[in-house]
Structure formats: structure tokens, C-alpha cells
User: What shape does this take?
Amino acid sequence: MSRGFRVIDTGVREGRANIAFDQALIEAHKAGQVSDTIRFLRFPPTALVGRHQALSQELQLDHCRERGIGVVRRITGGGAIYFDEGQLGWELAFGRNTLGISSLAELTKAICEAAALGIGALGVDAKYRPRNDIEVEGRKLCGTGGFFDGDTLFYQGTLLIDMNPADMVAALRVPEAKLAKRKLDSAAERVVTLRELLGKALPDLPAIQKAMLGGFAEGLGIDPQWGEITEAEEALAKRAYDEEIGTDDFVHEIDDPGAGENVLSASHTCPGGTVSAHLRLEGPAQDRLREVLITGDFFVTPPRTVFDLEASLRGVHQAEAGAAVERFFAEASVDLLTIAPADFRSVIEAALAAR
Assistant: This one.
């Protein structure tokens, strides 16, 4: 028997308002106010950083300000992305036990393969690429990511329908190391759009949505049916926007962590992304951790994991920092999609070695 999913389309919304609705959808689902849901969404020109990224290091802020491009912090991890009306956002919010899969990595594979199946129905050879991309002949057509919040899984993706890659390159700071890893000269070569693949045969937005829903239905064994946005969701979204997500304090919460005096910094690149550590020490011998900030384009769940890790390391002797990282992950209930505990330990120890 297929599991029913409500389908909604919130249209084009200002970037921070879109992310606030993400939070509202999660809260409403956790409270049992809405059923399992698929949401389609679009943005005006917007540059978005992941939950744990440093704003000034990821975005060309002067360019965004001059061009009126929105600057937004997501509630999901991952890397910086550029969004405009030529891209279609999609996301799922559903119960941990809905699909009978409990692992975030396994759910990622199932959702991405289902999305690729739907996109493939449009006439392109879309394939899931671990850990969380959908590609066509090695070029990214759709990036994805998500996390568990209690018993609710929130998972989202971005389908590139029609976009000028130069707009993306101008708004984002794409690390040269990331391009070198893919053997590409520019970020524009890394991505591909449905417009480029299909040309004049590009279908309209409703047809694209229908194809994706068909992929989710077949690949996940669900029954998507169009429904309505609730007043409760809109009220929750407004509150999330006003109190946190829409504020500059939230967006700039992590800005330029390497700035200032006596900051020890290091970065570590692993197959699933990059993690950086920024430390300040204290004590007569300057041998204890006073402040720890961890940034990067990784995915962890639950969302508070990184903040809890940072708190657990405060006051730890530098010689014990690596072991303290290992203990934290051994005792915590954490799902790491793109990174391992050893990666966090490596970058903390590398930052300490920078003294």
C-alpha cells in the first residue's frame, strides 16, 4: 500500500522567507499538524550558505549587495549555492519510519535515485552520484542535503532548469581546490541545466514537477497528492523569520572566523567536503581551548551536533583535544553523511599544530 504525501508549491518567495518556511514545515510535521509532505519552491536571485559555513568566505558579498542578490543562511548543512527563478527547489518532510529506512545515508541514496528517476523521464540520463548529487555525464544537475530533527526527516534538493552559470560564479567564492578535485577550470563547467540538455524540448514547470512526483512515487513507493498550505505553517514561518532566520544576526552568525588576534586555524578536505577549525587558547601556558568554531560544507544530523561538539571542547587541554573529539562522537547519537569523526579530530589537531 502506497504511503500518502501532501504536495504543495509555495511559489517564488524571498530567500529568508523560504528558509523560514522550511523551519515551519519541520515544526508543523513534528507536532503532527501536517502529514508527510513534498514541497516545491523557487527564489528570486539569492546566494545561500550552509548552516555551518563562514559567510564572507563563501559569498561575494559586495557583488550581492550591488546587484540586489539576497543573502541567506540555510538550516541545512552543505555548501554555498546560487538560486534564481530558473531553478526549482524540492524538499520532503516525513517521518523517520515512513519508508522503513532509518539511516540518513540510505535515505539519501533512495531519495536521490527517486529524483533521478523522475528527472530521467524528461529525457536526460540523470544518475545519483554519492554522496548527495544528481549528475548528467559528470556535471551536476541537482544538489541535495538534509537532516533528522527528532523523528522528522527534512531533505531538500535544487534542480537546475535554466540558469546563467556566470551569475552563480559571480555571487559565490568557489574554492580552487574544489574545482581541481573535479579537474575543472571553472564552476560553470561543473554544472549543467535542463535547458542546455533539452534545448527547445524543455518542458514547462508543471510538467517538470509532474515528472519528479512520478519519480518519487515509483522510487519511494509513495502516493503524492496535491494539497493546501496551512495557516499554521504560515504562522510558524512568520515567527521563524521574525525571531531568527530573517535576521542579519542569524545570517552573519558565522562570518569571518579567522579574523582577529590569536586565532589558530586549519582546514581539512575529505571526500565528503571541507571542515575548518578556528581556535583560541587560554590559561597561563595558553594550553587549554577557550573558544572553538567549526565551519564547513559538511552534513551532520541532528543539526545541533557541531554546536554541541564545540561546547564539549571548551576548557579541554590541548594535548587531550583529539581524544575528546573521539569521546564526543562515541557518546553522542549522531549521523554523519559526508564526514567522519576522524576528520573533525584531524582539523582540530592541525589547528593546534599551527601555534
User: Anything to note?
Assistant: DSSP finds 14 helices and 16 strands in the chain. Residues 276 and 297 are 9 Å apart (CA to CA). Residues 264-353 form a domain with the Enolase-like; domain 1 fold (CATH 3.30.390.50). Residues 177-185 have pLDDT under 50 and may be disordered.
